[in-house]
Amino acid sequence: MDLVFPNCINAPSFPAERHRISLRRTRSQISHSTVQTRNRWLPIRVSSLAAVASTPENSPSGTATSGTRISRRVASTSENENKASSELLRKSSAAMEQLDIERGVCLPFRKYSPETVRNKVLESRGAIASLMLRGVEIVWNLGLYWSALMYDFLVGRDEEVVPYRARQLRNLLCDLGPSFIKAGQVLANRPDIIREDYMNELCILQDDVPPFPNQVAFKIIEEELGQPLEAVFTKISSQTIAAASLGQVYRATLRDTGEDVAIKVQRPQIEPIIYRDLFLFRTLASFLNGISLQKLGCNAELIVDEFGEKLLEELDYTLEARNIEDFLENFKDDPTVKIPKVYRNLSGSRVLVMEWIDGIRCTAPQAIKEAGIDVNGFLTVGVSAALRQLLEFGLFHGDPHPGNVFAMRDGRIAYVDFGNVAVLSQQNKQILIDAVVHAVNEDYVEMANDFTRLGFLASGTDVSPIIPALEAIWQNSVGKGLSDFNFRSVTGKFNQLVYNYPIRIPERFSLVIRSLLTQEGICFTLKPDFKFLEVAYPYVAKRLLTDPNPALRERLIESFVLNTLITSPRFLIATGGYMGLTC
Asked: Cα Rg for the chain, rounded, in angstroms?
């Protein structure tokens, strides 16, 4: 076979999560047998948790979400069945149910549960010996690192050696394997858990992951296809286009059609490694619950469950294929956004074949200009696409780094790598918009209460110590006026807040923050004087006039943000322009 494209540039990284497939199902489509399967593991506490989630402060619309409805329905029949369950099962189930309630989204076909992980690990031959050896390896390496940190603290040099210790941590996570690389990538977006200087070092893990040999990758592709590579592809790249913690990407040409495609291949024998490490993570987390409750307001096991649920979904590339199809459906009528099609007949759980995107990296402003693309128009397209994902669809790209976002030569924006996506329920979107309204109106008490509603603070937490800190952050960030607002100035100060208070950032919101920051960074690369609100005006005008959700329109119209925008000539021009286009 000819090996070509040695210098291709396209960098999908990886993961895979499925949400919208659940949202598209009506309650009547969720099978009774599925509900009963989940019911075996639901705790008695679910009914009380569901009641909390459906209170007015947690459900602005006054109605329970589908996830809450299912939780109530299942809980009503689960009390007798769960009496015989162990305390361990009840606690782990409660953690998973809490995640469902916080999200406000039903995930009826869950791939992860602590019991599933434990059973999967212990059923394998030689499991105990493998766990003991791996446990010793993890404890020994992390123990040595922790001892070094304690020594630095005792001799008073802990601040001096931060850059060195941060690099040491990154290298340690790489040495411990894909589970720890993935954990490091998650920590790079969790200021509630780790210091900002360590976060910056761990960001390198997003891109700098060594590939595995081509021969191994090609064999996996052939096993999934059930036929030799030569029968399907005429060409395949001799080097990986991108490598990540769970897999890597090649470029190839289809024999039947001559189309160029991207082939994403999972790392070999990674599933048993992930299951084993998740079991050990959760075991270690059980010893850290006291510290976690004090610092984050939740059990450490809950954080592991949140991480493990997403990680196991990322292992199945069929879920990423569904994500791509959902994005295609969402943007099917949008001529400014390009989503690659997926070749289902050539894809499986370990291999994903997608349309090749021949675009220009968004961090190459000169190349974009040379291609004749209007930078201002492209920025408007990008901001609009990002806001639609967050506020309309509730399904958004969680990793829009420069290797995953491209400028097409016709001015469209193109996205690749749909493994790392997240979902926001209607309830979460409404509370999020409420939080923005409260921030702009400088209602810091309600801003603090929004933290509880969104799951950042445990229910019942005294928010009074946080109110002055929120006020200081917001005043410093918008001191020059809302027109100069940018996300980086806010999140930099917010990171300090969450590190010093018992605040936990739910994973979906850590992805929101990362997504907004990454895309804003791309915008600043293309236009150093970029102003988010100016570019967002046309989209806001359109939503004011056309949004089908009355509650959302009311929140937008009544907010001080819109009072400010409506008095702006730019807003009037944007509104008038949109009305002219629709008449």
From this structure: 24
DSSP state of 246: S
Please check whether residue 452 is in contact with residue 60, taking contact to mean a CB–CB distance below 8 angstroms. Answer: no
DSSP string, 76-135: HHHHHHHTTS-HHHHHHHHHHHHHHHHHT---SS----HHHHHHHHHTSTTHHHHHHHHH
Q: What is the mean pLDDT of each run of 10 residues along the chain (583 residues)?
A: 36 35 34 29 30 38 36 38 47 56 53 84 82 92 93 89 92 89 82 79 73 94 94 94 89 96 94 92 87 75 85 89 95 95 95 95 87 90 89 86 88 91 83 78 86 84 86 72 68 74 80 81 85 73 67 60 48 40 38
Element containing residue 226 per DSSP (H, E): none
Q: Active-site positions?
A: 399
Q: Which of 479, 467, 547, 219 shows the shortest CA–CA distance to 351?
A: 219
Backbone angles phi, psi at 390, to 5 degrees: -75, -45
Token reading at 162 = 């931060």
- Cα(424)–Cα(240) distance, integer angstroms: 33
Q: Is the pTM of this model over 0.85?
A: no
